[in-house]
Amino acid sequence: MTPVPSDEPTASPQDTGKRGKWRDGEIYQSFRRRPATIGAAILLLFLIATAFLSPLFVPQNPYDAAQLDLLNAEIPPIWQADGQWPFILGTDTQGRDVLSAILYGSRVSIVIGVAAVLLSLIVGITFGLLAGYYGGIIDTLLMRLGDVLLSIPTILVAILVSSLARQALPASLRDVGAAGVLVLAIVLSSWVQYARTVRAQASVEREKEYVLAARVLHVPNRRIMLGHILPNTLTPIFVAATLNFGMAILTEATLSFLGIGMPPGQPSLGTLIRLGNDYLFSGSWWIVVFPVMQLSFLVVTVNMIGDWLRDALNPKLR
User: Fold this and answer.
1) 35-52 and 98-134 helices, crossing angle to 10°
2) Which domain holds residue 212?
3) Is position 23 within any domain?
4) 3-state secondary structure 271-291
5) pLDDT tens-digit readout, 286-309
6) How many domains does the chain have?
7) DSSP class of residue 317?
8) Which of 33-42, 127-136, 146-155 shows the lowest per-residue confidence on average (mean pLDDT)?
9) Which GO terms describe its cellular component (predicted)?
10) Is the pTM of this model over 0.85?
């Protein structure tokens, strides 16, 4: 009997081989052996997805003052006696739905965290490559600048930068530029770690034969740094970036809690915690407890994934 040809696409041996190689890889196998890391990754994906898809299902836009009603202020969570639908986690003192505010605030915190890590990577990698490859006065100036920043607690650097930047902006632009100021404050206090890591690796790689051969062939220095030296530093940089993502979110929340971060009209998780802190012992506990839980889940899941990456990419632990 003649087989009937199928119209369904079949995976090529090359694609199958790539998938099999990836599944048999040490990183994937390490991930499979860590149920806690798998749970953290699933929870983190859920938190990020709900934050960015929140406009599709939350009952209100907490940033739109027209949707807020003071008559709905301080409604408790829905499972309590006075709870009302659709305010599942209750409302705050302005009639703002707590669940909506948390999800919108999570989106702000995540975006600020990602932007801060990316810019820190760019600054840190650039300075680290320049210092490690060229050495001399460039290395001295950049690393001494890093030493000065490291001698001051990170949060104090961020507070100083944030305060100065907000004072420099016109009053009409302070709320609009609040997110950018936070990103700048976090970047200036966190790029040193990346720069030191890249600088140490670049100092070693620049003396190796393949770099010396590239110089003899008059390969541009930029191409040597980006195409040859940088790839050898990506593993520790990737691990550091993952861990610093959680730290960036926590730094943003701290600055907002202190009142020099996001404004009350565009609350992040830190702003929500600051606004709800005054009502923790007055009976309206839900205003502050749920934002704290959301922030904790975000930071803990990111740190758990970062810890796993650090172990999985460490050749001494394989």
Assistant:
1) 110
2) 51-317
3) no
4) HHHHHHHCCCCCCCCHHHHHH
5) 888 889 999 999 999 998 888 888
6) 1
7) G
8) 146-155
9) plasma membrane
10) no
